[in-house]
Design a protein that fits this description.
It is a single chain. The chain is α/β, with parallel strands linked by helices and 331 residues long. The chain is 46% helix and 15% strand. An 8-stranded parallel beta sheet has the order 1-5-6-7-8-9-10-11, with helices on both faces. The chain has a 3-stranded antiparallel beta sheet with strand order 2-3-4. Strand 8, helix 7 and strand 9 form a beta-alpha-beta unit. The mean pLDDT is 96.
Amino acid sequence: MTIDMHSHWIPSELVDEMRKRDTAPKIEADENGRDFIHQPRGAFPLPSDYGSLPKRLEAMDANNIDTGVFSISAVFGVERLPVQEALAISRLYSDAVSSLHEEHPNRIFGLATLPLADIEIAAEEFDRALALPGIVGALIPGNAFLTLESAQPFRPIFDVAQKHGAHILVHTGMLPNDTSYPPGDEVDNARARRVTLDMQSRISSNMVTLCMTDFLEDYPDVTVQCHNLGGNIPFELDRLDHISLDRDSSQETPSSKILKSKVMVDCNSMGARSIERAVEAYGAHRIMLGTDGTKFGASWSQNAIAEAKISDSDKEAILHKNASKIISRNS
């Protein structure tokens, strides 16, 4: 059994709406007639199974994915739209995915998208969405957690998550009125700088906020997930500890704080050696399968898990056992 906790997909209703939009997020064909999803920074080809559930289920079957937890990628920028625009898209998405869950109760779950231009309205919409069958949590853009200070305004959303024992996926993305843009297409090696270097750095900052501050102490029943193995954290623990001990050896080391944290990570886009290091840094009980919802991603991630020099029980935990606890709690 495999459960994909990081699977982006949008239903046909939202594909149609995005084709009507004049500004990002929008779907627009290029001069060759190929559809692209435009986001605040850059654009990428519309996956062939977006809008087609049969195609997505076929892709899941072909890649041995039993269950997908669907979400809109935060890089699209829905959350940062004017509140009424974002709210309309959020409701459309949650309602559509919930209906699909009722048709395929063991295969499809969803994470709500929230209109973050107004946190109170976002909290109300989250509460509404969590009452729908199959909605197990929400996705929040990672720029909300770059620092403890930036995280504070989002406590009303975590209050709702605590009330329901819900799940939060913290995924790279921007906030309303955000000026912290990643590198644009005008720089050299833009994709490498934006989608790897900048993204992994921001995810690392998210992990520092969530694992090394007291922000989550008020939310013991909320599970939190960061993607891409928590950014660079598994590879920078030595550096974090070195600086910490050099400056003040009386303080608890960052590696200790991170090891004791309950924050989950998924293994989307990462390789076997990275997964091995993440098991050392976090423990296998905190790692889940993530694929981005693509055929390539599903094959890549499962091959990496298979190749990783970790125990079979660790692999089972990553492929399905850890995620099944989250899904069953919210079913």
